[in-house]
Amino acid sequence: MWKLWLGVMLFAAPHLFSIVARRLRDDLQARIGVGFYKAGFSILSAAGLLLLAMAYYDGRTGASPSDAFYEPLYGARHAILGLIALSFVFIAASHGRSHIKAWVRNPMSIGIALWSLGHLLANGEKVVVVIFAMFLGIALTDIVCSTARKSVSGFKPQLRADVIAILGGAVVAAFFALVFHPYVLNIPVVS
Q1: Model-level pTM?
Q2: 36 shares its domain with 87
Q3: CB within 8 Å of 32: residues ≥ 6 apart
Q4: Residues 9-52: pLDDT tens digits?
Q5: Where does a domain end: 42, 62, 82?
Q6: Are the beta carbons of 63 and 129 closer than 8 angstroms?
Q7: Are both 170 and 104 inside the same structural domain?
Q8: How far is CA 160 from CA 62, 98, 142, 168, in A?
Q9: How crowded is residue 101: how many other Cβ atoms within 10 Å of its Cβ?
């Protein structure tokens, strides 16, 4: 379990610091340079993700019924496919000048929140719950803080960006459902 908790700390700490303590983050960037800050942020986050992946693998290979917080609702894995697809559309929309981004204002964090929520609804294993609860917590914190700061980026929305976000999100969702989950994680999503 140490890999799980250390992974959570290494991934969550830089993200939450950057979200919640923006003035301290800006001061630190000014002192050490943006490049060094981003490098440190990336190294800590990558180390955290690696530890989370290792903890997930350990949890999958040694999981037993007692390693679950709850039993997901019957059919939940199929029911959340739409939620997950929507989350990838929002994540894709965060990279362009789409109407979706203008309307939602924080599509990356909302997409991550929906993605995390979908996984929490479909899986009750302790390791999975801790990992996706962490992602959900970071995303919700970012949504709340961005809303409180009234962060708005001004741009003229383009329909082309919406089409790209919708198609890109659908392709990525299909890849995860049809390739990554069944062949990499050995967890069929669609049967």
Answers
A1: 0.88
A2: no
A3: 40
A4: 999 999 999 999 999 999 999 999 999 999 999 999 999 999 99
A5: 62
A6: no
A7: yes
A8: 47, 7, 27, 12
A9: 23
Cα separation, 123 vs 77, in Å, equals 8
> In angstroms, how far is CA 188 from the centroid of its own chain?
20
Domain around 97:
67-191
Residues 33 and 111 placed together within one structural domain of the fold: no
Please name which of 147, 146, 116 lies closest in space to residue 129, comparing C-alpha atoms: 116
Contact 127, 55 (CB under 8 A): yes
Taking a C-beta distance cutoff of 8 angstroms, is the pair 161, 97 a contact?
Answer: yes
DSSP result, 127-139: HHHHHHHHHHHHH
Q: Among 157, 144, 174, which residue's Cα sits nearest to residue 84?
A: 174
The answer to whether 87 touches 115, Cβ cutoff 8 Å, is yes
